[in-house]
Amino acid sequence: MRPIGVIRTDFREMKETPIQSSAAKDARGTVEVFAEFADGLSDVEGFSHLILLYVFDRTQGFELRTTPYMDDHPRGVFATRAPRRPNPIGMTVVRLLGRRRNLLDIAELDIIDRTPLLDIKPYVPDFDLRTEATSGWIAHAPGRSDPRRWKDDGRFGE
Amino acid sequence: MRPIGVIRTDFREMKETPIQSSAAKDARGTVEVFAEFADGLSDVEGFSHLILLYVFDRTQGFELRTTPYMDDHPRGVFATRAPRRPNPIGMTVVRLLGRRRNLLDIAELDIIDRTPLLDIKPYVPDFDLRTEATSGWIAHAPGRSDPRRWKDDGRFGE
To answer: Which of A67, A100, B39, B85 has the smallest count of CB within 10 Å of its CB?
Structure first.
């Protein structure tokens, strides 16, 4: 595993960075794919949304139980999207605004500046839409309806 | 990066393995999370669907342009979900049937037997549903409406 690019946003510190793209509707940024991989971007323009896989490189180690930003109780890490995981891979669905050669202009970007990119996949409704899915603890989390809690609260520092 | 578990299914060879979970509605299998990580599974039971991240360990190398199983034309690898990618990470949304300690019973599993697991994330409609998303080349791919093409065609051997 090695970076194929870098994600550039206006979020320079973990604190205040949106915790999900759905909390970052107005956040714009750029995905730079390194020139050697640029040919792999052909045909991405047809997709309105992309899945980004990236490294949570600003945290260290992991906890098997963690209190999510939106909740007040510890949860198993695999029932959360928290960054401190055994393999620190982040996944976010973002909106593609356009491509300029090896640069992608992106909206709904909840990612901290200079994050190493691992992969880009198209978001495909046939594969990825699960309208019947239920939300587990998130359905009743105290932070779910409070936008002030849709951001990193700074507990892991920078 | 290291495996946190292993995915067990009835698909022993690449050929004929479904290429997406939406083409594997009847396929059942098990995700075994290694005992040292089992505590991280608390609270997953509340979610109907999970996102699995895993290693495409039966393929080698990558191509920046590849002809998808469902299509007849080469596409940029980042506009496909093809396995031979610069970082060979697979991502699939699956349906959770239940948990037995460190074992997850899974449906809609499009993954080959003994695949190394990297991460489990909850599928969260607030974060992951994009009902407005468009499908790029897949919208018009000749294989989209032909279930015979929703499987590995064996071109990469085993």
So the answer is: A100
Q: A77 CB near a chain B CB, below 8 Å?
A: yes
Retrieve residue A117's tokens: 């990119």
Query: Pick from A49, A129, A136: which is nearest to B43 by CB?
Result: A136
Flag if B44 and A129 touch (Cβ within 8 Å): no
Give the CA distances from residue B9 to residues A50, A95, B102, B126, in Å, rounded to whole numbers and listed in that order.
Answer: 28, 33, 16, 30
Q: Which amino acid is at B145?
A: S
Taken in order of first residue, the domains within chain A and their CATH numbers are 5-149 (2.40.30.70)
B99 interfaces chain A, CB cutoff of 8 Å? no
Output the pTM of the full model: 0.93
